[in-house]
Write a structure and sequence with these properties.
- Helices cover 0% and strands 52% of the residues.
- By secondary structure, it is an all-beta fold.
- Strands 2, 4, 5, 6, 9, 10 and 11 form a seven-stranded mixed sheet that branches. A four-stranded antiparallel sheet has the order 1-3-8-7, with no helix packed on it.
- The N and C termini lie far apart (37 Å).
């Protein structure tokens, strides 16, 4: 399994970006998936998780720092997860990583150790 994250870039405070995470190797529609980020000089932190509920249903969870501003979504047919980021702040500047895992503990987890597969990261810079 490989994950390819993209969509990062430079945006002004208050702006928006949409990140994509495309999976290859097998369909990850029933896996748990998540977004993490790592700012310069800081540890990797949890951003949001997508939990598979069965059928085509998912639910999402968010860290307090992004709740109400970011939205995670999945397109199982395209084997892709998205992160819509609105009202961006300078403190959102980081490299964003997507992750996936098929273990039960991967589904909706906020812990990086729960995930087996990681993308290479895409840089988001929020600055005026």
């Amino acid at each position: 399994v490989q994950l390819q994250a993209s969509g990062g870039g430079l945006v002004q405070p208050g702006g928006s970006l949409r990140l994509s995470c495309v999976a290859s190797g097998r369909n990850l529609g029933s896996d748990g998936m998540a977004w993490f980020r790592q700012a310069p000089g800081k540890e990797r932190e949890y951003v949001a998780a997508s939990r598979f509920l069965g059928g085509r249903a998912y639910t999402s969870y968010y860290s307090n720092s992004v709740k109400g501003r970011f939205t995670v979504s999945r397109d199982a047919a395209r084997n892709t997860m998205y992160l819509q980021m609105n009202s961006l702040k300078p403190e959102d500047t980081a490299v964003y990583f997507c992750a996936a895992g098929s273990r039960g503990g991967s589904n909706g987890s906020a812990l990086s150790r729960s995930y087996d597969y990681w993308g290479q990261g895409t840089l988001v810079t929020v600055s005026s």
